[in-house]
C-alpha cells in the first residue's frame, strides 16, 4: 500500500524500525516486524500504513496523498487536535480545520520492541508558532504499539499554569474491500447527522454504507465492529477517553471534490474515528488526559 512512495533507508533505528525518506527527503518511520508492517510520517505523527503479516492492510492511504510536510495527509490516522472540525470562534479566523497537530512536525521519542510488537512514541510540545494559534503550554505524546493489532494512545499533558480544554480525533481511515460488503455494529443508538443540519437521529443496529455519511455517534458502545465480507474479517475497534465515534465517507461527489483522493477512493475506505466532539475535556495544570483506540 505504500510501495508507490519509493522510500529508501536513511538510518536503522532498531532491529525492526528504520528512518526512511522519499525522493523529496520527506522523513518516514518504517516498521517491518515479524508480526506487522507499518509506517508513520514525522509530519503529524501520522500512521499511514498498518498491515498485520499475512493479512490485508487495515489502514487506508489515498494513492494521491500529498507528502510535503505542510498539507494534512489524506488517509492513515490524522491526529485532529486540539480541536475537531472548525475551531472555536474565540480563537479567531483562518485557523486550520481539525487543529494544527496533523500539520506540524513531531519529534521521534522512544522505540522498544520484542517478539510480539514494536512500541514507538512521538512528541509535540508548544512553540511560539503553536502558541500563536492556541495559547497554551502542552506536551502531546502519541504512543503506538504495532503488532498483530495496532493501539494508538494520545496523551495530552498540560505543562502550563492554567487549565486547558481540548477536542480531538484519531481520524482512522480503515481499508475496506467494498462499501456493499461492509457494515458497522456497536455505534450506539443515536447520532448527529452532519449532512442533515446536525439533526439528532436514531441509528440502525448495523450501519450499511450506501451513500455519503458524516455522523457523530454520541453514545458509542465499548466495541465498534467493522464487518467486511470481501476480506472475510471483522475488525474490533475499542477506544477510551472519547465521547463520540465519527463515521465518515465522502462518497462519489465528495471524492471527486478532493484533489488528494482518487475519484474511486471512497470505494475502499471508511473512517471510524475515536473522537472528543461534545464537551471539551479540561486538563488542569500538570495533569494529563488520554484518548486511545485499538484495532484488532
Ligand atoms: O478533509 P478533512 O479536513 O481531512 O476532513 C475530513 C472529514 O473529517 C471528519 O470525518 C469530519 O466529520 C468530516 O466533516 C470531514 O469532511
From TrEMBL:
Pfam families: Aldose_epim. It catalyses: alpha-D-glucose 6-phosphate = beta-D-glucose 6-phosphate. CDD domains: D-hex-6-P-epi_like. Keywords: Isomerase. Transmembrane segments: none annotated. It comes from the Bacteria. Its EC number is 5.1.3.15. It is an enzyme of class 5 (isomerase). InterPro entries: Aldose_1/G6P_1-epimerase, G6P_1-epimerase, Gal_mutarotase_sf_dom, GH-type_carb-bd. Belongs to the glucose-6-phosphate 1-epimerase family. This is Putative glucose-6-phosphate 1-epimerase. It comes from Motilimonas cestriensis. The lineage of its organism: Bacteria, Pseudomonadati, Pseudomonadota, Gammaproteobacteria, Alteromonadales.
Amino acid at each position: 500500500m505504500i510501495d508507490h512512495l519509493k522510500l529508501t533507508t536513511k538510518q536503522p533505528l532498531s532491529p525492526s524500525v528504520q528512518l526512511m525518506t522519499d525522493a523529496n527527503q520527506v522523513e518516514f518511520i518504517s516498521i517491518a516486524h515479524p508480526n506487522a508492517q507499518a509506517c508513520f510520517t514525522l509530519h503529524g505523527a501520522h500512521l499511514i500504513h498498518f498491515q498485520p503479516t499475512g493479512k490485508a492492510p487495515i489502514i487506508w492511504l489515498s494513492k494521491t496523498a500529498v507528502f510535503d510536510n505542510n498539507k494534512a495527509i489524506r488517509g492513515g490516522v490524522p491526529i485532529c487536535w486540539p480541536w475537531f472540525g472548525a475551531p472555536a470562534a474565540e480563537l479567531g479566523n483562518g485557523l486550520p480545520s481539525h487543529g494544527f497537530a496533523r500539520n506540524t512536525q513531531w519529534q521521534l521519542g522512544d522505540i522498544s520492541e520484542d517478539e510480539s510488537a514494536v512500541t514507538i512514541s512521538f512528541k509535540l510540545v508548544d512553540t511560539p508558532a503553536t502558541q500563536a494559534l492556541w495559547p497554551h503550554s502542552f506536551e502531546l505524546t502519541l504512543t503506538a504499539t504495532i503488532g498483530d493489532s495496532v493501539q494508538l494512545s494520545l496523551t495530552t499533558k498540560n505543562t502550563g499554569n492554567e487549565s486547558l480544554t481540548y477536542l480531538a480525533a484519531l481520524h482512522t481511515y480503515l481499508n475496506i474491500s467494498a462499501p456493499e460488503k461492509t457494515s458497522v455494529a456497536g455505534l450506539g443508538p443515536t447520532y448527529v447527522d452532519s449532512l442533515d443540519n446536525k439533526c439528532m437521529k436514531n441509528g440502525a443496529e448495523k450501519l450499511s454504507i450506501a451513500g455519503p455519511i458524516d455522523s457523530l455517534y454520541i453514545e458509542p458502545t465499548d466495541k465498534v465492529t467493522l464487518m467486511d465480507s470481501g476480506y472475510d474479517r471483522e475488525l474490533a475497534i475499542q477506544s477510551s477517553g472519547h465521547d463520540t465515534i465519527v463515521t465518515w465517507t465522502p462518497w462519489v461527489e465528495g471524492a471527486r471534490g478532493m484533489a488528494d483522493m482518487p475519484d474511486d477512493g471512497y470505494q475502499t475506505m471508511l473512517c471510524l474515528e475515536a473522537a472528543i466532539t461534545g464537551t471539551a475535556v479540561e486538563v488542569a495544570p500538570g495533569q494529563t488526559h488520554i484518548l486511545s483506540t485499538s484495532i484488532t
